[in-house]
């Protein structure tokens, strides 16, 4: 990597330490202070505020690279929204996953009406650049109204029971929300989830469906891709 293109240029700590801090923060339900403590146990003295800056600056870059490198998701999308309370006001976190459990995108909005559903559909289509074969949602009317305008030729299945895959995908967000003692603002929540979701998703290998050898191969590939994205030697 050339000096001019080195994103770590000017930082006091080497790339390996910055990469480790960002990985710890986004792959596990750890607070910034807990990451600071883990690094301190290894003789690395760095403040949690510095880790916060690293997670924002480098996490955003890593997340974008992982999105570009991921294989094309499945053609069956599960969509759902869950409420998130921020400073006493109710908001809705829209999320989409494919049939393999891969999170496609998230969007935090103040409403769950037709306009909000259309905005989420457009964000999904812009990021993925292809149309699904079928979408599965609950019985919220906003999905059907938006789908008729944005995805008129796509099959739409509505049921309160068929959408469990997407509802389960909200659990990591709920854990982080509790650990962070709720999100501080809409901007903070959207910014964190946009970074955290692709990084956390990259290391979710569904171990229960893989043999030991397959899991080790998938794990090694995930770490190799992560190191490549972070600009570290393999």
From TrEMBL:
Gene Ontology terms for molecular function: DNA binding
The organism's place on the tree of life at top rank: Bacteria
GO biological process terms held by the UniProt record: DNA recombination; transposition
Protein keywords: DNA recombination, DNA-binding, Plasmid, Transposition
DDE domain residues: 75-203
SUPFAM superfamilies, sorted: Ribonuclease H-like
InterPro entries noted in UniProt: DDE_dom, IS_Transposase, RNaseH-like_sf, Transpos_IS6
Pfam families: DDE_Tnp_IS240
Name of the featured protein: Integrase
Organism: Microvirga ossetica
